[in-house]
Design goal:
The chain has helices at about 5-20, 25-55, 60-75. The protein is mostly helical.
Length: about 80
């Protein structure tokens, strides 16, 4: 699968950025950021499921293609 919509890439990047922001947080700040990360992650999974259904592709294949596309276009946000 090579045709990954920009929206899926944007959603995956957002989820990874939210995950990276968890580093070093504790207590309520961690809990709040974790909720943001979970919401972003849920949005990615919903979009992947929709894309897989629309294209007749296995959701796991779509997810892997999205992750590869994101890795090719940016470094790990945890390093930034």
């Amino acid at each position: 699968m090579t045709d990954i919509p920009d929206e899926l890439i944007r959603l995956e990047r957002t989820a990874e950025e939210e995950r990276a922001r968890l580093a070093g947080l504790t207590g309520e700040a961690y809990d709040e950021q974790r909720r943001r990360f979970c919401a972003a992650s849920d949005a990615v999974h919903e979009a992947i499921t929709s894309r897989a259904a629309a294209t007749g592709t296995d959701p796991h294949e779509v997810e892997q293609a999205v992750r590869r596309a994101v890795r090719q276009t940016q470094e790990d946000p945890a390093v930034e």
